[in-house]
Task: inverse folding
């Protein structure tokens, strides 16, 4: 009776070759995923910075608008008050 060592070693070699090629493909995919995630993180950082700047600009515009509205209201009130006083005199 002879043993079939040659066939099992041939099968093991082919499985080993398939596994190594699979590992190479998976390693390449993982590298692609890592670079993609890093790019997305950079984009998220820049977007969050842009949003923060936008919020600051909106706050400044609201502040300036409220000052302008207060000034217009003050002068409008002053104008109406002086015209009423002048009409009474």
Result:
């Amino acid at each position: 009776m002879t043993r079939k060592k040659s066939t099992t070693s041939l099968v093991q070699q082919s499985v080993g070759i398939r596994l190594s090629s699979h590992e190479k493909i998976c390693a390449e995919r993982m590298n692609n995923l890592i670079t993609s995630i890093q790019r997305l993180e950079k984009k998220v950082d820049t977007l969050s910075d842009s949003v923060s700047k936008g919020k600051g600009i909106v706050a400044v515009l609201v502040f300036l608008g409220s000052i302008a509205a207060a000034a217009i209201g003050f002068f409008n009130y002053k104008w109406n008050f002086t015209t009423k006083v002048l009409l009474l005199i």
